[in-house]
Amino acid sequence: MNHIYKQILVSIILSACFVLNGKAQKKDVKNSNQQWFQYSSQIKFSDKWRLSAILGYRTRDGFSHSLLYFAGTRMGYQLNPGVTLSLGFNHLGFYTSGRLSQREYRPYQQFTLVRKYKNIGTGHRLRVEQRYFRKRAYEDIKAESRANLRFRYRFSLSLPLLQFPPFDSDKKLLFTPSYEIFINAGKEIVYNVFDRQRILAGLTMQFNRKLSVSMSYVHQFTALNLPRSFDSAHVLWLSVSQNFDW
What we know:
The protein is mainly beta. The protein has one domain (2-245): Porin (Beta Barrel). It has one helix at residues 2-25, and strands at residues 28-44, 49-60, 65-80, 83-96, 99-117, 120-135, 144-163, 172-175, 178-185, 194-208, 211-223, 229-245. Strand 6 (120-135) and strand 7 (144-163) form a beta hairpin. It is globular and about 60 Å long.
């Protein structure tokens, strides 16, 4: 297990060096602000099987423009406590100038490892996505299809800040930071093999084991598929999660 953590740490350090090197060479960085809203739920059928669903909507420029919507589902199988393998599918729609311009169909495979050390929770998530894009046809936009692969790795922490009486309950306030890196692969990928990174700092109010609400700040740094072109987004993210037992 220590060997695995060392490999993950080395990967993060090398990725961070790659990102910093890319920033040092950049010529064009666009700044933006975004607002993300997300609802997720999970149904536990047994000790092994779980079905999840997710809905989301994102805006930019202070809620003034639609950015995208998404909906998805995932089936997970728990190999042992803390280790889960999943198959999922997401559908996304992207907006340009106020109209729906592109759709994406995204099947994926996912591995998660969750551990707890005293009161501190750690999480590792590795996801492989197959992304299929379909650009909508308009008078000035031709219909077009393309595809690529994307690899994602996320490390997260869960740190308890406050626990509310009675102190044996599940009601608590958590600090939930995370770091995620995205890597692209495919014949159309030229300038953005490094796709993006997300640095997140959030507060999660866990009312009980079945309901939690999170408010997070995310800094997302994205490489565009253009020479030395990047987008730096400051994001406010509101998320609601529910769990159900079958």
